[in-house]
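quick q for whoever's on today - can somebody do inverse folding on this one?? i tried earlier but teh output was garbage lol. tokens:
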């Protein structure tokens, strides 16, 4: 197995790719320039089997090893950006106002491209590697997310993928370190919308109204008691109300208030509990005040669950790159969600985190992927391939 020094020669070039992608972010499935850039790079590496247009703008490229017959494993990177106005003040900041790579998908894509270039030139493995470049991890634009749509498009069967692996950068984790765990590694994400229907009127005469603002406030508090008083504290349940819309003037009590948010869980039964009890709680509170509600609950992303054998292989590949002490194989579960979960439902695999250093957190306007992490990501992918597909 190779140390990170083997991959330093790819650092400068992959950094150029990453910064180009950062300057030209694209959203959800509308990744036409990004997909074209990735496809051109893959072809320039001598990779002949490239399929584009999967789940609209997704790509799968296959590299065959020179070690003889063997299985095919999938390596996945996400490519889409977020609808955020960038405030990083970097020379390579976004040139698209209101769009930026605030989650490091530009880095993920660059690292997998770097691994593709190396693997295409060496091919010291048996079987094949399927490089999966996915759209719409952040937002499906009202449709299903890209990971689900690529699975539904049949990539696992069409390419005979037997195992699949993913990677994400981790702000706050030192560059050169990795984190992984067995079992659940990221939470399920469900989204909800509640409309409180009251009776509006003048803010100076609240007694003549059924004030949906006050009712919405009571519902928000009630939902938090589901977490603090109705759920086993050993289990993980997060209910966050993130949007609240009412009247547009200070002196109006509106007829209705719209509220939305997200639910994160690690246990499937908690998804059922949350959906059932959130509706009952909101409806009970509203009716006590003489109001009614509309309730919508959408199950969005399942729990991301690492499989045992594949987690061990991923841990081994990372430790061979950076040493045993630089890999935490008991990483704490993260309550963020990841649509790679759909791929892990379709095939066994593992999801690992690579250190991004002391940077701003993801989904923040000042975030930027740390280019110093690039050789570590490339090296992990190569070591993983040569571990799983040892010739």
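ok took a stab at it. sequence:
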């Amino acid at each position: 197995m190779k140390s990170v020094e083997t991959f330093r020669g790819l650092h400068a070039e992959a950094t150029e790719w990453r910064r180009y992608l950062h300057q030209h972010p694209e959203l959800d499935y509308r990744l036409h320039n990004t997909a074209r850039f990735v496809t051109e790079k893959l072809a320039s590496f001598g990779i002949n089997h490239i399929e584009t247009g999967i789940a609209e703008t997704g790509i799968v490229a296959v590299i065959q090893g020179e070690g003889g017959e063997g299985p095919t494993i999938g390596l996945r990177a996400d490519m889409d950006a977020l609808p955020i106005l960038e405030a990083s003040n970097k020379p390579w900041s976004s040139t698209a106002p209101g769009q930026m790579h605030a989650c490091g998908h530009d880095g993920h894509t660059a690292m997998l491209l770097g691994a593709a270039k190396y693997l295409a030139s060496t091919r010291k493995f048996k079987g094949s590697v399927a490089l999966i470049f996915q759209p719409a991890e952040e937002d499906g634009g009202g449709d299903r997310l890209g990971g689900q749509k690529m699975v539904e498009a049949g990539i696992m069967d069409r390419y005979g993928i037997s195992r699949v692996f993913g990677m994400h950068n981790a702000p706050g984790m030192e560059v050169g370190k990795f984190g992984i765990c067995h079992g659940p590694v990221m939470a399920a994400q469900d989204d909800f919308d509640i409309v409180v229907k009251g009776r509006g009127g003048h803010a100076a005469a609240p007694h003549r109204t059924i004030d949906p603002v006050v009712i919405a406030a009571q519902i928000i508090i009630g939902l938090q008691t589901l977490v603090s008083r109705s759920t086993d504290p050993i289990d993980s349940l997060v209910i966050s109300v993130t949007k609240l819309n009412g009247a547009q003037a200070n002196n109006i009590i509106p007829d209705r208030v719209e509220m939305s948010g997200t639910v994160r869980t690690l246990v499937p039964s908690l998804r059922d509990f949350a959906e059932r009890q959130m509706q009952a709680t909101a409806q009970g509170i509203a009716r006590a005040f003489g109001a009614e509600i509309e309730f919508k609950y959408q199950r969005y992303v399942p729990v991301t669950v690492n499989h045992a054998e594949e987690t061990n292989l991923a841990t081994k590949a990372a430790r061979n790159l950076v040493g045993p002490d630089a890999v935490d194989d008991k990483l704490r579960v993260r309550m963020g969600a990841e649509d790679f979960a759909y791929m892990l439902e379709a095939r066994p695999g593992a999801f690992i985190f690579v250190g991004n250093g002391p940077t701003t957190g993801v989904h923040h306007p000042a975030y930027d992927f740390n280019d110093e992490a690039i050789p570590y990501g490339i090296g992990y992918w190569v070591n993983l391939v040569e571990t799983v597909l040892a010739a």
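fwiw The chain has a mean pLDDT of 97. also The chain has two domains: 4-185+303-388, 188-300. so keep that in mind when u check it
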